Amino acid sequence: MSGPADPQSAGAAYWEPLWQEGRRYRTIDAAEADALRRRLGPGRDRPALDIGCGEGALTAQLHRLGYRTTGIDCAPTAVASARGNHPDLDFRVHDFGIDDPALLPHPAFTAITCRLVFRWVTDRDTFLSRVRDLLTPGGTFWVVTSVHDPAQGPPKPWDLSAEEADRLTTAWSGVHPTELTPSFHCYALRP
């Protein structure tokens, strides 16, 4: 079984079959965990939202930093896996692009994370507007994504172009990039 051809427009219809087939994604390594800790700092029991939580690794990392975390994903199989991996944390089936933000457990979040997801977002302007609306003053939007590095050859389907990365980081008062590899970047964005 495979999903529709266009992951950007399909949401759960695309991602759920991949999770059911056992597809898994890049794990969080020590360098990425360290960048997250340095840029987000201690949670002090403040709320954090992990968009596209998958199996819950980033949600759990936020929890270890002291955040009150909620992980959301549009794929029920991913959420079930996250709940199995981290039974003490809050995971919900929720499509951030279309579901009502009022269904989330908090009206605002100190940290919102989006790891390996932004590339597949169809309406990025609306997505970023929702993120900004949900961030507390002084909050951080943490994005982890692959960005095409021409030295690495042709772009991969999961790469953002340099122009897309520039658009992602526009209109934030603070932009703090961390390059983990030439094509794997983290961005701490502040409104």
UniProtKB/TrEMBL annotation:
Q: Does the keyword Methyltransferase apply?
A: yes
Please give one Pfam family short name: Methyltransf_11
**A GO molecular-function annotation:** methyltransferase activity
Identify the keywords attached in UniProt to this record, alphabetized. Answer: Methyltransferase, Transferase
A GO BP term here is: methylation
Q: Which Gene3D superfamilies match?
A: Vaccinia Virus protein VP39
All copies of domain Methyltransferase type, residue ranges: 49-142
User: Cross-referenced PANTHER family, in alphabetical order?
Assistant: TRANS-ACONITATE 2-METHYLTRANSFERASE, TRANS-ACONITATE 2-METHYLTRANSFERASE-RELATED
Q: What is this protein called?
A: Class I SAM-dependent methyltransferase
- Which species does the entry assign this protein to? Streptomyces flavofungini
